[in-house]
Amino acid sequence: MRSFFFSACLATTICTAMAIAQSPVAYVYVAEDTSDTTTTSPIAAYAASSDGSLTQIKGSPFTQVSGIMGGTNGTHFITVDMNGTTTHQYLHVYDVASDGVIGEEVSKQDLHEWCGSDGPAEFDHTGQYVYVLESQPCGGGYLSFALSKSGELTFKGSFVEGSSPFYSLPVFSGNDNFAYNFTPSADSQEPCPTNSFIGLGREGSGALENIGFSETDPTPPAGYQMFQQGLVTDDPTNHLASVIYSQDGLCGQNGFTPNALASYTVESNGDLVSTNTWENVAQLDGYLGSGAGIKLNAAGNILAVTVGAGIQFFHFNGAAPITPFAGTGIVGTSGDIDTMTWDNDNHLYALDGKSGRLYVYTATTTTAVEAPGSPYLPPNNCTSGGCWPQNLIVRRIP
Question: What is the mean pLDDT of the chain?
Fold first, then answer.
């Protein structure tokens, strides 16, 4: 009897220890909207388990952080003050512990030394460089900074687009040598705005510069002209996925083709080449979602697109045509997904900008389902209501 009791206790102890020792597969940060654009309401932080369920970490929500979340490289966390009318507007750097806890501020840069910022910041894939969207009055472009291991920022350069300012941060190629975005364009013969790819090269210092590059697209049906929707995402092996469509006549007065997905290869000189044809591009099952998002997973083989009231999942095959998950269709009915991002364990985190709820999906190479506990409603410190999460950051754990 004593032996049985001892064995049972030992087994229980081992199982409990194993459960405690299980490490999170990611840390998820959600910031809520606020009327003061130089500060943010508390940041809710979660540890994600292997099944996609979330648990708030110690100290969450964090209140010492100011500005709008930009990203994390695992050791540091960046934010940007979004009020361009103040005399000082800062890019902030905070320490991040190995358990996901956001620490104290370690450095900051006054962006008004160069002009200011209309938008957020992001890391490149290496986590060594930070890029900030520059304000439109300054021409519209990007500020580049190097981030040291201790968290100090060093200004590396400013790229200004000029006549067609950017409205978002760029997407980097897998090797970080090139970055791509879209600029809206219209001329006297085409009064309806369209989007055009623009390519940037990265100097050895980390600064971005304009490059001349060519773009090879799928050929549209006879009589139609192809356009980009302005949505692009990258894989780790120098490929991009982009949403395209084509129209016949001025502003599509004679018809449109459905939105479709095209794959592109980033050549060694920065050229974009698609070998897809209009006959084999994957078409979306409905209209683009209100948030219009597109995001590849860390491995680069699963693509998520906001479609209708949910998300549609596709196989991404590098340069080959993109193909939809068979029999899956549109997953979820939240209706207002405006931010998506993946961890390294094939969990997709999707933020509903209207309800404030955070959805978690687990994807395999054949299916995508909502994870246990999803959706979550992050803590809201707004007393008058109407304050919903505005930003979502996921710290991937190798």
Answer: 84
